[in-house]
Design goal:
The protein is an alpha+beta fold. The chain contains three helices and four strands. It has a single domain, classed as Alpha-Beta Plaits, CATH 3.30.70. Helix 1 packs antiparallel against helix 3. It is an enzyme of class 1 (oxidoreductase).
Length: 119
């Protein structure tokens, strides 16, 4: 998605399972005209979906972008998938911004986390 230079340096919390994740991995094209604005709009829009839990992003030096969206249940994920603005952004992404991408959706059965105590 975006470079997220202002994003906090902490992963999304470990939630009580079950919940769902949508893992989007992509390599973008050279022409990214309009991508940042659309991406920012999608990040704002998904927050309005009841059951949306959060999102993590990573970018490899080689250009592979990874976004993981967390959703409380399948209905929340379905609502996001069927959102008209999101569908339009997907269509534009295929036409302009992505060289290739993969989407994996999974039901999380186990989740835990660790945070080092402050010094």
């Amino acid at each position: 998605m975006s470079d997220h230079s202002e994003a906090p340096v902490a992963p999304v919390a470990a939630y009580e399972p079950p919940y769902y994740v949508a893992v989007f991995t992509a390599v973008r094209t050279a022409d990214q005209s309009g991508y940042s604005e659309t991406n920012a709009r999608m990040e704002d829009l998904v927050k309005d979906v009841p059951g949306y839990l959060g999102m993590d992003h990573a970018q490899t030096p080689g250009g592979l972008g990874i976004t993981v969206g967390y959703f409380r249940d399948a209905d929340a994920l379905t609502e996001w998938r069927s959102n008209a603005e999101h569908r339009a952004a997907q269509k534009r992404g295929r036409a302009e911004w992505y060289q290739n991408y993969k989407l994996h959706v999974a039901k999380v059965e186990r989740s835990h986390g660790f945070t080092r105590a402050g010094r």
